[in-house]
Every structure is written in C-alpha cells, then in structure tokens.
Sequence to fold (251 residues):
Amino acid sequence: MRGAGEPSSPGAQPAATGGEAGEDSRRGPAADTPMGSERMEMRKRQMSTTQETPGAAQAQHSTGNRGSNACCFCWCCCCSCSCLTVRNQDEERTRTSHELQAESIPNCEESPAPTLEEVNAWAQSFDKLMLTPAGRNAFREFLRTEFSEENMLFWMACEELKQESNKSVIEEKARLIYEDYISILSPKEVSLDSRVREVINRNMLEPSQHTFDDAQLQIYTLMHRDSYPRFMNSAIYKDLLRSLSEKSIEA
Fold:
C-alpha cells in the first residue's frame, strides 16, 4: 500500500492523461462552435460591407464633384472665396460686353411701307435698292438669312460716320466701327483685302469721316455682285412683290 503522502506510481499517469483526453474530446464539438460563429460573423460583415460600398462610392463621387466645382483654395464653396469673386466679376464683364454688342447693332430703319413702284424699281439696279430705307430693310432681312448682315451694318455705320462733324464723336465712332467690323477678333468682321486694311490702319492714326471710304466701297461692291442677284430671286422679294401686286389689283 501507499501512504497518503507518497507520490502516485508511474502507471497511474496515463490514466489521468486519458481522462483529460476524454474530457477534451467531450469539449471538442463545443469548442468548434465559437469558431463557426466567428465565421458567420465574418460573412455577415463582408455582406454588409458589400452593400454599403455603393453608398460610400456615391458619397465620394458627390464630394469629388463638389471639389471639382470649387476653387483650388476652398473645397466648401464658401461665399467668401476670392476665386468665386473673380469668377462673378468675369461673368458680369462678359454679360456687359454682350449687352453693349447688342446695343451697337442698329434696328431696322423706320420707313413707310414700300409701294409697288418702289419694289419694281429695286429690280432695275442695286443703287435704287440701297437708295430707300424700305429697300435697305428688305435687303438686310435677306442678308440675315445668309448670315452676312454685318456687310449692311458696316455700310450703314460708315454712312452715319459721314454725317458727323464733331471731332471727338468721329474718333469714338471710328473706334467702334474698327472694333466691330475691321478687327480680326470681332465676330462681325467684314471681308476686306490686305490693301484696304493697311489704308484703314493708317487712317486710324487721325480718324475722320472718310476713314473707311475704301472699305465701304469694297463691301458695297461685294453686296452688289454677290448678294443682290440672290436677293432678287429670293422668297423675301418675290413674296413682297406678289403681295403688293395683289393689293394693287384689288384696289
């Protein structure tokens, strides 16, 4: 027999180990359960992340758009941003420029309705067409359909310049005519050859009523040879002539 204080024999150790192994084997299935739960949790997290990704991408896209519209110094587009102030000033300057350009385009001349005799006379010569305000208005309406109204506008501006006698007014009107119809930067630039342009540039050193005489004659000739024949065959002229003829017959 063995005393209470004596150590256990070596043969008893495997039995104890076997008991522990049995206990571990009994706990084995239960120990797997937390790992399975963790896997399920990981799957749920992955699914939730996948569902949230489009919303996050949309939020990032929205933020990116806001940043692209903002200036380089201020992402929040605050009203105190200096870049926005400059942008507003540029827009105001552009709007003012467009308004001035619109004001510089003269309206159709006031004139009584043309008579049948006048309209028939337009077919006789270009000079007779350009002699009356009604003829110029009808011809200008036709030029507008061909996107060449600037030729008539330039010719009319030159005629108006010839009526001025005040030196300061002449200089101002000459400058406006040059900017509107001669400058290559103008959308209403008329077609002139290099010789005439050189003459205008010299004349602009001391503007007068006759600064654009050569250019006016060249544009007049262009309208006579190029646009006038098409105007005589246009619906605008034929409809006007037919309308006046019918009224004349009814009267």
